[in-house]
Design goal:
There is one protein chain. The protein is α+β, with helices and mostly antiparallel strands and 275 residues long. It has 8 helices and 8 strands. The protein folds into 3 domains: 100 residues; 49 residues, SH3 type barrels; 81 residues, Alpha-Beta Plaits. The chain has a 5-stranded antiparallel β-sheet with strand order 4-3-2-1-5. It has a 3-stranded antiparallel β-sheet with strand order 6-8-7. The longest helix has 43 residues. The radius of gyration is 30 Å and the shape is rod-shaped.
C-alpha cells in the first residue's frame, strides 16, 4: 500500500513538474516574441527631421546593431528559459549542481576548444557597435568586392558582383584592412582609362568624352566629369576619366557605359582610339 501511495505521489510530483516546465516554456516564448517585436519596432523608428540621406545612414546603422543584439538577446532568453524549465526536474537539478561545482574546469576546457568561435562572436559584437561595415555596404575584403548581405555573431556574408557568396569569419574582419565604399556616402568616383593616338585633337577628344559621360544614365550629376592626361606612351596618350556615380554598383556600370559610348562616338567622328 505504501509503495502504491509513494508511486501516486511521485506521479503527481512529475505531472506538476511537467506542467511547470510547459508554463515556463510558454512564458519564455511570449517574452522572446515581445522582445523581438520591440526590437523590430526600434529598428524601424527613424526621426522624421533627418534628410533622406541621413535617414538611410541611420537605418543602416540601426539595422546592423539591432540585428546582432536581437539574436544575442533572444538566444539568452531561450537559454535561460530552458535552463529554468529543466531545473524543475530533480534529475536535471542534480546535474546542474554537479556542473556548477565543476564550472571552472568545464569553462576552461570549453574556452580552449572554442577559442576561434568565441573570438568570432566577440569580434561580431565589436563590429556591430563600432560599425566599420554595415548591412548593404559595398566593401572590398581580401580582394573580394561585393555588398554586405548578412551579418551574424560568427560570420559575415558578402554578395559579390558576380552573384557569389563569400563567408568571412568576423575575427578576420576585425583584424584585416577593409575598404568600405559606402561608410559615409554611397556616391563614388568611377575611373575609366582611355587611350588616344597623338594624331587626334586632344581638346576635341576631351569634349567628346565628357559629352558621352553626361549621356550615360549611370552618371550622377554631382560634379563636372574630369578628363586628365595621365601618361605619354610610345604611340598614344593615356587619359584618366573620372565621373561620379550614385553607388559602387552604378560606378562599374558607368565605367563600362563610358567605354562603349566613347568607342561608338569616336567611330562616328572618324577618330581612332589608341593602344
Amino acid at each position: 500500500m505504501d509503495d502504491i501511495r509513494l508511486l501516486i505521489i511521485n506521479q503527481r510530483v512529475l505531472i506538476g513538474q511537467l506542467i511547470t516546465a510547459v508554463v515556463i516554456f510558454f512564458i519564455t516564448w511570449i517574452v522572446a516574441f515581445i522582445t523581438s517585436k520591440l526590437l523590430n519596432r526600434h529598428v524601424l523608428y527613424i526621426p522624421a527631421r533627418l534628410t533622406k540621406k541621413e535617414q538611410a545612414a541611420v537605418k543602416a546603422s540601426s539595422v546592423t546593431k539591432l540585428k546582432m543584439l536581437k539574436r544575442l538577446v533572444i538566444a539568452s532568453i531561450w537559454f535561460a528559459g530552458t535552463a529554468i524549465a529543466l531545473l524543475q526536474f530533480s534529475f536535471f537539478a542534480r546535474i546542474g549542481t554537479a556542473l556548477l561545482a565543476s564550472a571552472g574546469v568545464v569553462g576552461l576546457v570549453f574556452g580552449l576548444a572554442a577559442r576561434t568561435t568565441l573570438g568570432d562572436a566577440v569580434a561580431g559584437l565589436m563590429i556591430a557597435f563600432s560599425q566599420p561595415i554595415r548591412l548593404k555596404d559595398w566593401v572590398l575584403i581580401d580582394g573580394e568586392y561585393g555588398q554586405v548581405e548578412e551579418m551574424t555573431l560568427i560570420h559575415t556574408i558578402i554578395k559579390t558582383w558576380d552573384n557569389r557568396r563569400v563567408i568571412v569569419p568576423n575575427e578576420k574582419l576585425s583584424t584585416n584592412i577593409i575598404r568600405n565604399y559606402s561608410l559615409r556616402t554611397n556616391e563614388i568616383l568611377a575611373e575609366t582609362i582611355i587611350y588616344i593616338p597623338y594624331s587626334n585633337d586632344l581638346n576635341k577628344c576631351v569634349g567628346l568624352i565628357k559629352k558621352q559621360i553626361k549621356a550615360s544614365k549611370y552618371w550622377f550629376n554631382k560634379e563636372e566629369p574630369q578628363v586628365e592626361v595621365c601618361e605619354f606612351l610610345a604611340k598614344s596618350i593615356k587619359l584618366r576619366v573620372l565621373a561620379y556615380a550614385k553607388n559602387p554598383e552604378d560606378a562599374h556600370r558607368l565605367s563600362v557605359d563610358i567605354k562603349e559610348k566613347v568607342a561608338i562616338a569616336f567611330q562616328k567622328a572618324k577618330l581612332p582610339l589608341g593602344e
